[in-house]
Design brief:
- This protein has one domain: Metal-dependent hydrolases (TIM Barrel).
- Helix content is about 40%, strand content about 15%.
- It is built from 10 helices and 8 strands.
- The mean pLDDT is about 95.
Length: about 260
């Protein structure tokens, strides 16, 4: 049993065969899929998928690249959306300094307010970080979000060990995606090797970041098995052990209801 803790199943690239994609995931042993929202408009689509498929759970939030028109009033809308019984996190939120789609100050305000909402609702967060290590860590450190031992996940982790260590100290989990299977990803595999097994999650970020065996193709939840296999190889353990540990980690961070329904 595996959990794909980050998949954009609502994207149009799945419109033609979404039922088959979910079925293939189940056949591959991927029994749960967490689908994060990117903006207020697609929150409805994400929640509709959670209603449609028993294996799908949702996160609601505003991605940093969707914050250019950020309004503080959006927090109330997110609070209402988060009341859905299959919402397990606030996300995908964070900072993205690679694409010039929103001023850095606006991204930071949106992230801070969504962290505050997560703390209020006792929900973990799914954190996007692209070329913004220092500011992401600073805002996470300043946040009141602690939530015991499950503040959130640093999604599709791609930074160095120093960043990983600081995130781990704050209680965050590390989410690993297809790039850990790429031939030139030695530094990332070193982070994976050093990270505690009880703080590792496996993700696809589908339809993006397909693992090496499917590189150049559309990614999908069933391919998270390749990520788990790479974790097993790097950690010199069995795939069965990785499946058990990462599934337990997903339940710890996103709640036991993830596995009980």
């Amino acid at each position: 049993m595996l959990v794909d803790t980050h998949c954009h199943l609502d994207f149009h690239r799945f419109d033609g065969d979404r039922d088959e994609v979910v079925a293939r995931a189940l056949e591959a042993g991927v029994s749960r899929i967490v689908v994060p929202a990117l903006d207020l408009d697609n929150c409805a689509a994400v929640l509709a998928l959670a209603d449609r498929y028993p294996s799908v759970f949702a996160a609601v939030g505003v991605h940093p690249n969707s914050t250019a028109l950020w309004s503080d009033g959006w927090i109330e809308t997110l609070r209402e959306l988060a009341a859905h019984d299959k919402v397990v996190a606030i996300g995908e939120i964070g900072l993205d300094y690679h694409w010039d789609k929103s001023p850095h100050e606006t991204q930071q305000r949106a992230l801070t307010q969504q962290l505050e909402l997560a703390a209020e609702l006792d929900l973990p967060v799914i954190v996007h970080n692209r070329e913004a290590d220092s500011d992401v860590l600073r805002l996470l450190e300043q946040s009141a979000l602690r939530n015991g031992d499950r503040p959130g996940v640093l999604h599709s982790f791609s930074s160095d060990w120093e960043v990983a260590a600081r995130g781990l100290e704050l209680g965050y989990y590390l989410g690993f995606t297809g790039p850990i299977t790429y031939k030139n990803a030695n530094e990332l595999r070193d982070v994976l090797r050093k990270a505690p097994m009880d703080r590792i999650l496996v993700e696809t970020d589908a339809p993006f970041l397909a693992p090496q065996a499917h590189r150049g193709q559309r990614n999908e939840p069933a391919y998270v098995v390749h990520v788990a296999q790479q974790v097993a190889a790097v950690r010199e353990t069995s795939l069965k052990t990785v499946e058990a540990m990462t599934t337990e980690n997903a339940a710890c961070i996103f709640g036991r209801d993830l596995l009980s329904s």
